[in-house]
Fold this protein.
Amino acid sequence: MPMTEQATGAQHPQPRARNGGPSSASVEHLTGAQSLIRSLEEVGADTVFGLPGGCILPAYDPLMDSTRVRHILVRHEQGAGHAATGYAQATGKVGVCMVTSGPGATNLVTPIADAAMDSVPLVAITGQVASAAIGTDAFQEADICGITMPITKHNFLVTRAEDIAHTIAEAFHIASTGRPGPVLVDIAKDALQAKTTFSWPPSMDLPGYRPVTKPHAKQIREAAKLITQARRPVLYVGGGVMKAGATAELKVLAELTGAPVTTTLMALGSFPDSHPLHVGMPGMHGSVTAVTALQKADLIVALGARFDDRVTGRLDSFAPYAKIVHADIDPAEIGKNRAADVPIVGDAREVIADLVQAVQAEHTEGHTGDYDAWWKDLNRWRETYPVGYDLPEDGSLSPQQVIERIGELAPEGTIFAAGVGQHQMWASHFINYEQPSTWLNSGGAGTMGYAVPAAMGAKAGMPDRAVWAIDGDGCFQMTNQELTTCALNNIPIKVAIINNGALGMVRQWQTLFYNQRYSNTVLHSGADTDGVPAKGTRVPDFVKLSEAMGCYAIRCEDPADLDKVIAEANAINDRPVVIDFIVHEDAMVWPMVAAGTSNDEVMAARGVRPDFGDNED
């Protein structure tokens, strides 16, 4: 869903004909590299995460003189990309990363793909070999435009200095409007070195790019009629509502209709978790109530969601009784996985605002929904199958309890970034998200190593907010070097390592589906033959490792120390803090819908399948 200019905080010039530039623009004589930095300043980019190298080096010289753009030197290009994504998700602005050619550019492929899956506005700037050498397999050459074509919203190869300014303007406009996404700008080294003229704002030429934001009135009226006629409606809210800045409108619509709201992993915080209309997160590890509400609904109103497989389970059995209203800024999403009875193309904020008026009109005419029987079912499921956990019998730390207490003791407005796996799912369930943009994660791509650099980016963009990274010991070992970046750049994030000595989610699947054959999922050395990490192994020792990178580090193994160490971490704000929580290795994520099965087969816990009774089918 599109970001408005007001929401992003960036200044995005509106498209105009290439020959219709403003007459009032001042003209300066600069190098292409100077033009690039000036362009970043003018579009409102205040932070760039990057790592210099030969082909992008000309841009780093004028960057040194900029007083408007802060550059944060990362330790790995993947960290630059995830940091830019975390910055964008936390602030609503376009995230920016800048690296050199060849391996520097290819190290951005994962965060670019991640941003594409989660519709994050990102501009990635890469250096390229000189234009005459392109295609010759020159040193550190890679066809990054070709490589990233399937995972960018658009990309540009710039070989002329005079094209740099308008290309940057176009890149920011494309990244932040319509359905947000990553845009790559690959600039040849000789274009950065050449002389050119610079004027701002530049003219832009995007003849095929006209995102539709205003929904069709007839479709809105049809949707409103279905909402008031339904007996078992569900508002299925995706990340597009957050991207559109439509959370206030969503609350009005939900309270106006009285329909239950389920928020996807990418939408947590777009509707308060504590609100009585909220029934939880849907999907493979969603709440029983949310999963079952979608299965038994007679109407699903999908707002900025894409019916992905982690929500639907086996698609041919998903929501068999439901009519579908599907609203999305991207027309390619509508009908892609589930046919829509009422398709609505438009910006979520405008769609929801128009739906509110249309539902009010229905109410004025005496058409109101009767959902009393529906809420009796929903409330019974909520009471019978709440999301919960058992404490380990051996008195060791429960990972769920650790994450729950971090959430409860964190300052108001804290931003949480999670890696991928068990800890991600526990963080989605056991921390309450009351405000938008306080939950950052890699939803679509499921990128291990996301949390630390994304938290770094979020803290750089929102320095007055506390930022916790909830990470697993597997994820942490992929990108923890960015803690050095945090320590040296006064970015005091807090990191909770949920250390169970294994690749937890993979191990859970091995427990459930592979007869407890733990092939290559134990992370510490000295594993026992049954796959359980040997007690006392510390390879690596995360406390020593974190201290070596300039962090304050603590280890916590005793539940009696839990609140004390979390409070200690919250009180330290002059450096990054890392807590190594040694947790029980056998904890599992429940509820669960096994991959490839129907959501009707949701398990509330191991060996516990909900019983809804025949009268509800």
Residues 407 and 431 are 5 Å apart (CA to CA). The first strand starts at residue 27 and ends at 31.
